[in-house]
Design a protein that fits this description.
heterodimer; A: 276 residues; mainly alpha; two-stranded antiparallel sheet; 11 helices; 2 strands; globular; B: 315 residues; 15 strands; 26% strand
Chain lengths: 276, 315
């Protein structure tokens, strides 16, 4: 055991291998391409039809290109991001079980807890990547097609472009955190089955069901515990002063999902017979 | 890390696995695999071999009983001993879109006890050892069954091991590949590695094993050294003669067991009596001996006898 170097003992090579497989997989690259296309389409559409009549985020685009990024995040967060998350997270454990590679990882040996944490860490990277490509493509599209300069917030206050970029980073981080909460649900589902497609579909169904429940006002009692209810709270980050309550609730809720479903996934994965 | 002086590479006591449906796949087996041995784990398909192997590797949890590798209890402390164990379980399994080399590199990266610097060296050596160096860059999905099996064996050999657990290692290999695997097992055994090799084909292990265990419907019905098994064989003498009744009497008078007679033939279990004495007695008694044979039953027949059903799937 003395031959191991520091990074290996921390399990970094396996983490790197996981992230590498995620990003090198053709299907995942296509997902990223589709996500990149969304802010470009939005930017071009607004440019071609620009009239300052519309208000809100879209209306702000013609004033400052950075709003292409904010608008794109609003567009992708209810469904496109959950799809991107479901596909990858459903595959994570169930995919290895399905291929049979799970048993070989476990006999290496990779402890079950370590494997689950590594999978979750790689998924966290994926959440950051999908949000970042949308934000980045949004900023680039905005800068090319529209003026950039001081940013007029939704509350009418003006801040510097740099501060605006700072707000975008916070918004993107918030979106990634929400997706991580959803990932924990998917990871748990992925430990229940050896069929990756089933895990993907179940995770996506969960995400869509949350959306549907939020759309029914009579169910407002359960809305506070639904992740989807907090998706658009980040609009508060574009005001001055920043309204933290909605975003804070969303962030805490996401962490709660992470703890609860992460624990369920751990309890299931560390006790199940691997017979695939 | 291991108990000092642990003489057994694998030891189980009352190891049992009952699946949720109530089916008992492995029924209270007591394996004793001496360190340094090549242990053939035999039995028909469905007799519980793979379930046993999965329990030894901590993949499935036993319902009852205990198992230890080099004195280290599994699955409780599997993490501290499995690095010294290479395994091929129920066929190879790799990522289809990665090359053979990339698949091995991934497994090596998963091992928290090996340095990253020397990874490509280890992977290259393992590939060389199973003759896959030329195909290392091809995607796994394009590999033939035999190449996949070789890659599985290469994964088990990624680092020096004290114990190799190989489940049906020659599945899908051509005769040449089968010979190579046998040679490889021999080489590893000479280096002091304990090899635990399961098979439903007796002929495959007979040539390389020092010890055998025989499974039948979840039970370990026989275990011991191959020499012990041979010694236990009941060698029979067969006398071809028109005077079969007379010959039967002579054999019985000599004190041989299980004397049998049919027209033109008399036979009995030889025991430790020299066959020439039997011939002399027969001739002295005036038996017209047309043929005399000492028949050592083939190991295959013994296993059929032990497993009671031949090498078919057991319900």
């Amino acid at each position: 055991m003395s031959a191991a170097d520091g990074p290996a003992r921390l399990g970094l090579p396996l983490f790197a291998s996981e992230v590498g497989m995620l990003l090198r997989r053709r299907r995942n690259q296509l997902i990223l391409l589709a996500l990149v296309a969304i802010p470009i389409v939005i930017g071009v559409a607004v440019r071609l039809t620009s009239s300052n009549a519309t208000g809100g985020l879209i209306g702000s685009i013609t004033d400052n290109g950075i709003f292409v990024a904010f608008t794109a995040l609003v567009v992708v967060i209810p469904i496109f991001l959950p799809v991107a998350v479901s596909v990858v997270v459903g595959e994570s454990v169930a995919g290895e079980a399905n291929l049979g590679t799970l048993r070989y990882l476990l006999v290496v040996p990779v402890g079950r807890t370590r494997l689950l944490f590594t999978k979750l860490a790689a998924i966290a990277v994926w959440c950051l990547v999908i949000v970042s490509v949308v934000a980045l493509a949004g900023v680039l599209t905005g800068v090319v097609l529209f003026p950039a300069g001081r940013v007029t917030l939704l509350s009418g206050t003006q801040i510097s472009l740099l501060a605006g970029i700072g707000r975008l980073v916070v918004v993107a981080g918030y979106a990634a955190l929400l997706m991580l909460g959803l990932s924990a649900v998917g990871l748990f589902i992925s430990t229940l089955t050896e069929v990756p497609i089933a895990a993907m579909a179940a995770t996506l169904t969960f995400a869509v069901t949350m959306q549907v429940l939020v759309a029914v006002p009579q169910l407002h009692a359960v809305h506070p515990v639904l992740l989807s209810n907090s998706y658009l709270a980040f609009a508060d980050l574009l005001r001055d002063p920043i309204g933290w309550s909605g975003v804070g609730h969303g962030a805490l809720l996401s962490l709660a999902y992470l703890v609860i479903f992460g624990s369920l996934a751990w309890a299931r994965f560390t006790t199940k017979d691997v017979s695939s | 890390m291991t108990a000092p002086g642990a003489a057994r590479a694998i030891e189980t006591t009352g190891l049992t696995k009952r699946f949720r449906g109530g089916q008992v796949a492995v029924n209270a087996i007591d394996l004793a695999v001496p360190a340094g041995s090549v242990y053939g784990f035999l039995g028909p398909n469905g007799s519980g071999k793979t379930t046993t192997i999965r329990m030894l590797l901590g993949l499935i949890y036993p319902t009852a009983g205990a198992a230890a590798l080099f004195g280290v209890p599994v699955p409780d402390r599997a993490g501290s001993v499995l690095a010294e164990v290479g395994a091929l379980v129920e066929g190879p399994a790799f990522h289809p879109y990665l090359s053979g080399r990339a698949n091995l590199a991934r497994l090596d990266a998963a091992d928290a006890t090996t340095p990253s610097r020397t990874r490509s060296h280890r992977v290259g050596e393992a590939l060389d050892r199973v003759g896959l160096a030329a195909a290392a860059g091809k995607r796994y999905r394009s590999y033939s069954l035999g190449m996949r099996q070789r890659l599985g064996i290469a994964a088990a050999l990624l680092r020096p091991r004290r114990l190799l657990i190989l489940d049906e290692p020659t599945n899908g290999l051509d005769p040449q590949g089968t010979r190579e695997v046998r040679r490889l097992i021999g080489e590893l055994a000479r280096d002091g590695v304990t090899v635990f090799v399961s098979s439903h084909l007796l002929s495959e292990v007979e040539q390389v094993c020092t010890d055998v265990g025989v499974m039948s419907t979840g039970r370990l019905v026989w275990q011991g050294s191959l020499a012990g098994l041979a010694a236990q064989q009941r060698t029979r003498v067969r006398v071809q003669t028109p005077d079969s009744a007379l010959a039967k009497g002579v054999l019985a008078d000599l004190g041989l067991a299980a004397v049998a007679e049919e027209p033109g033939l008399a036979s009995a279990v030889l025991g430790d009596r020299p066959p020439e004495q039997v011939v002399a007695a027969l001739v002295a008694a005036g038996v017209a001996v047309r043929g005399f044979a000492v028949e050592r039953p083939r190991l295959e027949d013994m296993f059929v006898e032990l497993t009671g059903e031949g090498f078919d799937v057991s319900g």
